[in-house]
Amino acid sequence: MRVSLLSCFLLFLLVSLAAAEETARAQTFSGRIVTSVQYEPPEQPLAQEDLNAMQLVRVGQPLDLNQVATTIDNLWGSGAYDNIEVDAEPSGNGVAIRFITTARWFVGHVGAEGNIDDPPSRSVIMADALLTLGTPFNKDELIEAKQRIERELRDNGLYEAQVGIATIRDPTTHQVTVRFEVQAGKRARYETPRITGDTKLPNSVIIKATGWRWPLIHWWRQVTESLTDKGIDGIQKRYAKANRLTASVNLKGITYDPFTTRARPELEITAGPKISLRTLEAKVSQKKMRQFVPVFEVGSIDNDLLWQGAQNLRSYFQSKGYPDADVTFRYEPQTNDQEIINYYIALGPRRKLVHIGFTGSTYFTRETLTERMFLRTAGKILLRYGRYSEEFRKRDEESIANLYRANGFRDVKVTSTVETNYNGHPEDLGVTFHIEEGRQWRIANLWIEGNHELSLTDLKQQLMSLPGQPYSTVAIASDRNRILEYYYSRGYAKASFSYTTTPGPAPATINLTYQIHEGPRDFIRQVIVSGLYRTRRSLVEKELTLQQGRPVSLIEMNQIAERLMDLGIFANVNAGLQNPDGTSRYKYVLYDLDEAARYSFHVGLGVQVGVFGTTTNNLSAAGGAKGVSPLVSFDVSRINFRGAGETVSLQSMYSTLEQRVSLNYVVPRFFGSPATTLILSGIYDTTQDVQTFSARREEAAVQTSRRFNRASSLQLRFSYRRVSTSNVQIPSLLIPQFLQPVRIGMLSADYIQDHRDNPADAHHGFWNTLDAGLAGNFFGSQRSFLRVLGRNATYTSLGHNLVLARQTQIGEILPFHIPAGLATYDAVPLPERFFGGGGVSMRGFGDNQAGPRDIGTASELPGSVPPGSDCAPATPGPNHNICPTGFPIGGNALFFNNVELRFPLLGTSVTGVLFEDMGNIYTSFNDISFRYHQKSLQDFNYAVQAPGFGIRYKTPLGPLRVDLSYALNPTRFLGFNVNETIQQLITCSPAAIAAHSPNCTPTPQQLGHFQFFFSIGQAF
Fold first, then answer.
1. pTM score > 0.85 for this model?
2. Beta strands 509-517 and 442-449: pairing type?
3. Which of 404, 494, 503, 830 has the most neighbouring CB atoms within 10 Å?
4. Using one digit for the tens of pLDDT, what is the confidence trace for 79-120?
């Protein structure tokens, strides 16, 4: 013990002597002229501007030890060093100073590579590392990060995963790149859990509730963290379903067996008693009880939750017209593993809220006040009893008071009274809000202090709290955000704001003082981009508008990050400053990019329900048939092609109605413009959704689109396609002009204005589109025509619950340079004509059933083929009398008008729609008519009217839509109602004609009145 104490004493003595010697040595240099100041190593982590500002020791000046100490403090406070030492040596008659430094390292790019089996994804692994871009790098944090990542992998069943760490240091920027090398290994599967405790349910029921086995086949699923949590929740819900609301489910752990690669969960369960919540004196469904009483959601019972349930039930019945409703609860003694809680509901008489009045309000109009309120008076159709509850009434009091306070009425008081037996009617209710406005306080003077480096003269005019304006904390908060944003965008990242008030010179006035602490101004030393492996650096640099030497703008930094994300090639973009808390004023701006996976695959399944059918030669199917068409789609995309942000995609779709394959090459930011995109595409498409014929399209196209703003864009497109028809079912069309393929070269433009608030389910705004295309021999086209199609849709909110939506479409195809032997109408190939009808155009028709129909080749002659006449046998040809088949043949003009009234039906998820569709496909633009009746069975140029009702169910993908329509004046035509083929019709014998055989005689037909549609998304 004596030896140890003696050793410590000697060591302390030596250190003290050395320190004294160093101090004495330093004192000998004090006052000498500094001949040089050097740094070791010469390359310092600070910018030269910062180094010059922090270094107080100057060459040619006497050495001041206080300046040396302050310089060390300045350098250390910069946050750029782990260690700083100073050495002084004689230099002639002066002294040479040398700062010996150890630079600090900072976190740069953080990535995850290797065999990563999602889950967890690469982004989750990097997030688990908790390494923040630009912060000081610490080796010990890497070990903790590795442990967190390994824990994440184990939680997702990857018990044999291995994680390695690799670091790369950049001595120039002092950034450290960290890469986590992950080898995921094989994912474990669940096995039968070990269940302990008082379960009161069979183990088989508990295991089924976990969802850890596939249904039907009962194979154990692979372990993932989300599936484990979902399984525990499933058990909890199963007990809640059995009314055991106090059940506790505890996952004690998961035991992994490396030999079987199975994971056994260990569950400890306490079922608790059955809890029965009953309502007396009024009926409430179990669904409503679960909605209003939070014990079901929380999974436990206590008085606070039960009291909240009573309040919710009270508000519910009050909103249903029972303003005097009162709800209390009481426990029944627990018996036989069951606990009963009774809710006693005294409803009182049912009343209607017929009046909402205001007293004392002079500043705001009644409309301004009511539009912010929950209370609603009774309507004739909706809200038959109005909407009233005491909770709503209190909310409205506070809402009105906040409105006044935001406009300078600091002392406003809002109360309300309820008048039963309103105007002598016992069933009526009136509510009057009493408003004591008080004085309106205004700003007398506004002073801004602390803005020493920036002038706020221009900004001051944009503030809300200017002299003469009402005083409110809402306006001050807006000014605070505006001022700080102004400073943040000019390099003052640490700027702060406060305010004080004093009485003004006049009554009800306020002197307002804004106090700004500007803090230091940061400048850009350099912009560093990390994380690029496949992407061209030039692509990213085009978006980097920050320049060296400029003030650091946090606003612009975030805008650049958003633009980089908009490229669609990065999974994450992280922006920050190196050493943000350091005192250095010249900082590295960092962008760490995580490149997204290059390939993406999408498989879709769908179904189309309605009146349609594949191309058929069954004469009785000319009006379409109800059916179901399954649909399968498969898409594969390669993003960031060539590292230039370009995309190559293959899209395919197969159904009984259509088969399509398209190959697209997308070049964003064409010619360096962020708003311009170039698309090269090739399409092969076959459609059979028109009974008259099947169409085939082989197309190559080039398209450029430019977005002018968020709502407006223009698309220019040149396409060259080969269109052909097959399975033509109209004898008069079985001629070379219609059977031969036709080449179409078309230049088209599409202008879009989309001001809808929500494209999937709009409530207000408008939507305009104009599509114009020109095909002609100057483009190598075998047909020449002009095609124009316009659409206008508007959406208007009527109050809080109703939306009036309307849409009008009008289009024309105008042929020119008509080939010899063809009429104007026939000059447009069948696949290029307008076809319409169905769930997205006109619901009075089945899909593509609108418009002109086949009336036979001789029908152009006066009086030919009258109803009930016989058809002469003939060889197909343009000059033969062939019977009308009634198949749709499209038109060269269209007009559709749709009007919808959308309203809530069941809660917030289910809405109803009343609609009226009107219009048709017409032979030509001059034939457009709004007539209600057909002139004859050969006249199709009239307007079909179809009212109907629909239901919309809100889903994450958009509203699930079901529409039922009734055509008031469905199309009538000549056709056949027998299962006859075209060839049988053509070969009708003279004897059959003479005998008036129904197989050879056309009869009047009519499309169905009722149409049914099922799809996703609003009709427009």
1. no
2. parallel
3. 404
4. 999 999 999 999 888 999 999 999 999 999 999 999 888 899
